Amino acid sequence: PINESKYIWRNGEMVPWAEATTHVMTHGLLYGTCAFEGIRAYETPKGTMIFRNDAHAERLMYSSKIYGIGIHYTKEEIMEACRRAVRENGLTSAYLRVNAYLGYGELSPSATGCPDELDVIAFAFGRYLGADAVDKGIDVAVTSWRRSAPGTIPAGVKMAGNYLSSRLITTEAKARGCTEGIGLSHSGMVSEGAGENLFMVKDGKIITPPTAASILVGITRDSIMTMAKDMGYELVEQDIAREALYGADELFFTGTAAEVTPIKSLDGITIGTPGENPVTKSLQDAFFGLFDGRTDDKYGWLDPVEG
Ligand code: PMP
């Protein structure tokens, strides 16, 4: 169940949660023309902060541009809508879902006469992959579904329709008793999780698939890569063969919802030494430290909702 909050920011106004409904002929519903973002706001010792608000606004504008969805707000106005949605709901921490989509107006994939809609929904949200996933790790499966190939539906932008692939991957993984699934790229190399980027640690080196492997270029991925390099780790973006995953010392997922979550088994095979994930732990410490004050926000990633 969703933890409903009081108001939703809708095209510039705060409307009651129950009234934020839409017509069944909405273009975004009929054809998937909805760019979106998932963002987290954390309670920190310095107040509630939205993590990388600007990067999310930028990615939303980028996704919308490719599909001809107009956004009639500046980046700063989108960021302020996010702050306002958290603030006016009295939330101290939140998950935000921002939708930019084509509304009701015309029946055709090439429609140019639909209104551009923008919604920001902020609500209370806990751990995505289970209460102890971040500490204990999760069981994962490489599923039979491939991620979309280059030149088809672009995996590198965040559109609602892309999550048809995620649904197939994660549903198959759950049917096999796992918490989350991985998709391979069209060429058979490792791509990413249904809603997470994937990292592998081998002999102290950190490896993650390149953007060409049909991944969404995650903002958490970028944050972890930046911090890992600052911490002195050797980090490479490089194609990973499926079999290399089973020989990894550590595997972990990153994502706004998933945060930094270790993978303890893959296809029933134990990864590394159970309970020992020194590299993942050090990155988790750095990441979660941003929110509890142990890590200095030297990157300027925290955006206060109180302005
Ligand atoms: N890949 C996919 C398919 C996702 O849905 C997400 C979650 N948005 C990610 C990666 C991670 O991206 P981010 O860190 O920006 O949330």
Detailed description of the structure:
The chain has 307 residues and is of the alpha+beta class. It has two domains: 7-123, 2-Layer Sandwich (D-amino Acid Aminotransferase, Chain A, domain 1), CATH 3.30.470; 133-292, D-amino Acid Aminotransferase, subunit A, domain 2 (D-amino Acid Aminotransferase, Chain A, domain 2, Alpha-Beta Barrel), CATH 3.20.10. It is 26% helix and 30% strand. It contains eight helices and 16 strands. It has helices at 27-31, 53-66, 75-87, 133-136, 163-175, 219-230, 242-246, 278-292, and strands at residues 7-10, 13-16, 34-44, 47-51, 94-102, 116-123, 138-146, 180-184, 190-193, 197-202, 205-208, 235-237, 250-255, 259-266, 269-270, 302-304. Strands 7, 8, 9, 10, 11, 12, 13, 14 and 15 form a nine-stranded mixed sheet that branches. A seven-stranded antiparallel sheet has the order 2-1-6-5-3-4-16, with helices on both faces. Helix 2 (53-66) crosses helix 3. It starts with 6 loop residues before the first strand and ends with a strand. The mean pLDDT is 97. Bound molecules: 4'-deoxy-4'-aminopyridoxal-5'-phosphate. 4'-deoxy-4'-aminopyridoxal-5'-phosphate binds at residues 38, 166, 192, 195-197, 216, 218-221, 254-256. Residues 38, 166, 192, 195-197, 216, 218-221, 254-256 line the site of 4'-deoxy-4'-aminopyridoxal-5'-phosphate.
